[in-house]
Design goal:
7-stranded mixed sheet, alpha/beta, about 20% strand, 17 strands, globular, Dimethylsulfoxide Reductase, domain 2, Rossmann fold, about 35% helix, binds iron/sulfur cluster
Length: about 400
């Protein structure tokens, strides 16, 4: 698996795995991605990382700035934006910054916002927020998955984090009898590879995991649900109790249990409740838990909230709709790629001046008043929080 210790290597920042990565130029301007073994990557590869170099030549790559209808150099556009924004007070201005950019840039932006009394919001994939809210922001090393006797996968980690699949397969093939149990709302990649599948309706997953946690001895879940037993939770939600009881007996009777939690947007309802119940279930079993965040640095969110009073996109949408927000600067993220139109449109239409900085053209950028091109994250160097929660230095790997 990707090594975490060798700081200063190039890394793919497309997800929280931060795999060591490299680029190879054929001398004719064609750059392709490589995963050199000497960088610490000796197993598996995800197709997103493998095709990342393609973005360099993508037709949507943004290369010049724009103020209104007029194209211009980035520094000239920035000067115009600063001049126009200075007519408004700090409290009427907000900055939305992508959390997956190098930490140094995110912190510098946060410090500037605090100095100018500007509202700061941080963008992270909506799928990460339930895990962050449940305090699940760091994973043990992925190689340790192979030591488990049984792994319980909640959600579909093989789809959200393909490189984790290699460690799980090591566990399954490494010794007879080691098992992968998938609890999910549909049969995904993990379900197809599992030795045992438990299918639960998307609206009932939180109830199923809560009942399982209670049956495994998680007192905190039982108290939060008014002292209900697993059987009572199942009866209230029309979940067959014998499936919960059977799985609880397996888990309690196994020495080394590992739990992998993956959340992809819309796969199940009440994801914060699922994350909280999985956390308590793992603690009650004494199991190792691998919560899989989507974005690198999502673990930074609680610290940004505490230290800089950072809020999130929901807060900005409310401020935009309420008319409090006159100037909005969006740095490094594309709300139109994830949020429905009814949510991102007010962000770009209600303020009087909207500035967007990004690498690839998008609907949000096209609707903004001013735009400047940003380097791709892999053309920068800096620090990210790896999936274990440790800072890892990386260097640029694309020219
Ligand atoms: S798993 Fe994530 S970090 Fe690794 S290559 Fe794929 S997208 Fe990049």
């Amino acid at each position: 698996m990707p090594s975490r210790s060798d700081d200063g290597v190039p890394r793919c920042l497309l997800c929280s795995m931060d795999c060591p990565i490299g680029a190879q130029d054929d001398g004719l301007g064609h750059v392709s991605t490589v995963f050199p073994a000497e960088l610490g990557f000796d197993q598996g590869a995800c197709v997103r990382g493998l095709t990342a170099a393609w973005v360099l030549q993508a037709p949507d790559r943004l290369l010049v700035g724009r103020m209104g209808e007029e194209e211009g150099a980035a520094d000239a556009v920035l000067r115009d934006v600063v001049r126009a924004a200075s007519r408004y007070g700090g409290s009427q201005t907000a900055v939305l910054v992508d959390v997956s950019r190098p930490i140094e840039g995110v912190l510098a932006t946060a410090a500037l916002c605090r100095e100018g009394g500007v509202r700061l919001a941080v963008w992270a994939p909506p799928a990460d927020l339930p895990l962050v809210k449940a305090g699940l922001t760091a994973c043990p090393p992925f190689g340790e998955i192979a030591d488990c006797d049984l792994v319980l996968a909640v959600g579909d980690p093989f789809s959200t984090h393909p490189v984790v699949a290699a460690s799980v397969r090591d566990m399954q093939f490494g010794a007879r009898g080691r098992r992968l149990v998938s609890v999910d709302t549909a049969v995904g990649r993990t379900g197809r590879a599992a030795d045992e599948r438990v299918a639960v309706g998307p609206m009932k997953l939180a109830g199923f995991v809560a009942a399982l946690a209670v049956e495994c001895g998680a007192q905190a879940v039982a108290s939060a649900l008014g002292g209900r037993s697993g059987r009572e939770i199942c009866a209230a939600l029309d979940i067959p109790f014998e499936r919960v009881a059977g799985l609880a007996a397996r888990l309690k009777g196994t020495d080394k249990v590992g739990v992998i939690l993956s959340n992809s947007l819309g796969r199940y309802s009440a994801p914060t409740a699922v994350a909280a119940a999985v956390k308590e279930l793992s603690a009650a079993l004494g199991a190792r838990l691998w919560p899989l965040l989507i974005a690198t640095n999502s673990a930074l969110l609680p610290r940004l909230r505490r230290r800089f009073g950072a809020t999130d996109t929901e807060d900005l949408i409310r401020a935009a709709e309420g008319g409090e927000l006159k100037v909005l600067c969006v740095i490094g993220c594309d709300p139109s790629s994830v949020l429905p139109q009814r949510l991102w449109r007010p962000l770009v239409e209600k303020p009087e001046l909207v500035f967007w900085a990004g690498s690839l053209r998008c609907a949000f950028g096209d609707a903004a008043d001013a735009v400047v091109p940003l380097t791709l994250p892999w053309q920068e160097e800096g620090t990210v929080l790896s999936s274990s929660g440790e800072p890892a230095r990386f260097v640029a790997w694309l020219p």
